[in-house]
Amino acid sequence: MPSLSVIVPCFNEEGSIGPFLRELADQAGSFSRFEIIVVDDASRDGSATIIRSLAADLPLRVITHARNRGLGAAVRTGFDAATLEWVTYLPGDGQVPAGEVRKFLPYMAAYDLIITRRGARPGYTAYRRLASAVYTTWVSRAFGLRVTDFNWVQVWRRALWLRHSSRFNSVFFCAEFLVRCQEEQPRMVEIELGYLPRRTGKAKNGSARAALLAAWHITRLFAEEAGDGRWHCLHPVAPDRPEPLDERRAA
Fold first, then answer.
1. Are 80 and 6 in contact (CB under 8 A)?
2. Which of 208, 148, 209, 206 is nearest to 175 (CA)?
3. 127 backbone φψ class: left, alpha, beta (φ>0; ψ -120 to 50)
4. Model confidence over 143-173: pLDDT tens digits?
5. DSSP characters over 215-234
């Protein structure tokens, strides 16, 4: 069985982080080795206290940012600290059910990247749906990546991350990594993960400010890649899209 490092970025998620981490720890038996790295991105609520109390009972590694640095930075901190063969991140708000990590198992032998998509987005406002559609179309056309959902969970071979890690702190960090590693032609597959509406707290990455920062990073990366003669839009690539997997095979 493969090994997996799960990064859990957390910023002001006191209403959800505790139950989610307990459920995630229960998935360890599905992998040869399994580690959870929680990155507290300078939470200002009770999240830090909850995480510290859980670390006494659960196999957690906890890293704390002295100041809030954003989702991309929190995930990068966790990935850089990871030690196992595969790395992924699951948001601390619990919108990805912890048991979904078992869906990765059937694809880990044959692929280098597992990209996931949401089948539905309950709780999304009209603004967030529009922003997501614009973002997906823009990134897809600019970089030749025919991916359904750039801003959702991805699972990467750690060796690939070490060679082509992302640099930006915005929500663009996942797509940025896919662009930077294209030259290596990794084997990619796209699968569907479950998605739950947020039960508590507020979304952190759907604001106008977050959108503007991502737009700036998209522009910077496009200019950087084009300046180096890499016009990805001229050579589009798409991951494999298998039929929905029987849940019994993923268990």
1. no
2. 148
3. alpha
4. 999 999 988 899 999 999 999 989 998 889 9
5. HHHHHHHHHHHHHTT--GGG
Please count the helices (runs of H) and the strands (runs of E) in the chain. Answer: 8, 7
| Enclosing domain of residue 113 | 4-250
Q: In sequence order, what DSSP letters do the residues of 80-134 get, joined into one string?
A: HH--SSEEEE--TT--S-GGGGGGGGGGTTT-SEEEEEES--TT--HHHHHHHHH
Q: Is the dihedral of CA 183, 108, 89, 208 positive or negative?
A: positive
Those residues with Cβ within 8 angstroms of residue 186's Cβ, 6 or more apart along the chain or in another chain? 111, 112, 113, 157, 160
Tokens 């307990």 found at: 22
- Can you tell me the mean pLDDT for 106-111? 96
CATH number assigned to the domain comprising residue 117: 3.90.550.10
Q: Which of 65, 82, 66, 83 is nearest to 74 (CA)?
A: 65
What confidence tier does 199 reach under pLDDT thresholds 50, 70, 90?
Answer: confident
- Residue 129: which residues within 8 A CB-CB, separation 6 or more? 121
Spatial distance between the Cα atoms of 114 and 117, rounded to a whole number of angstroms? 10
Which residue type is seen at 48? A
Q: How many domains does the chain have?
A: 1
Q: Report whether 100 contacts 251 (CB < 8 A).
A: no
The candidate with the shortest Cα–Cα distance to 141, out of 177, 112, 175, is 175
Instruction: Using the predicted structure, report yes or no on whether residue 204 has a pLDDT greater than 70.
Output: no
> Measured between alpha carbons, how far is residue 9 from residues 26, 126, 177 in Å?
18, 26, 17
